[in-house]
Design a protein that fits this description.
The protein is mainly alpha-helical. The chain is built from four helices and two strands.
Length: 78
């Protein structure tokens, strides 16, 4: 597959995994619960366990904010 096709596949897996987690566990009411849910939700793809966090960090190159950054932004707004 070409790069764009691979990227589309992983975006679709990511979106399906998030929607599945929301359907099973409900929509989280806080950022902490949302982060916890997204760290736990995972699929087995080709014998490998793939979580939302792994897709975001490894494949899509997104980073969840670290708790220290979140607290800093909460108390020290510009």
């Amino acid at each position: 597959m070409r790069h764009g096709e691979k990227l589309s596949f992983w975006i679709n897996v990511h979106n399906a995994l998030v929607m599945h987690a929301f359907l099973v566990h409900g929509i989280p009411r806080s950022n902490l619960k949302r982060t916890s849910l997204l760290l736990k939700a995972a699929y087995n793809i080709g014998g490998n366990t793939v979580s939302v966090n792994r897709i975001q960090n490894s494949i899509l190159r997104c980073q969840l904010p670290r708790p220290g950054q979140w607290l800093q932004s909460l108390f020290f707004t510009k």
